[in-house]
Amino acid sequence: MDFTGDENRQVYQFSWMERELKRVLEDKLADRILIIGSGVLECQTAIELANKSKEVMIIERSDELLSDCLNSPIRAQLMRSLEKLLVTFYLETVVIDSEKEQVCLCNKEGFQLYLAIDNIIAPKGYKYF
User: Can you give the pTM of this predicted structure?
Assistant: First the structure.
């Protein structure tokens, strides 16, 4: 998976069309990783990284994980894999601010939460902060 982005802010973006999870640039990714979005590619990436002992957090703007494959058998398979791993989910939540090693999240009720993170993985073209 080819990442592009702002390495100074530790933000990496990937294309929705790329499926080569084995090429994740692990040497650039530290231990605490925030993934923005919960589609198939994001969840596959979370599973791959969690299997490599990374602490993975996923934030999703909507109230549903894997909304891009609701009626697909792959959804059940991915959900089972995610349940077995230590992946933290924040639904109905967005990033409102980012500093070098932390982000501020805000849910639909306006509650703000600061998370210590090392890297952010976001969809290509995602407008962040």
Answer: 0.81
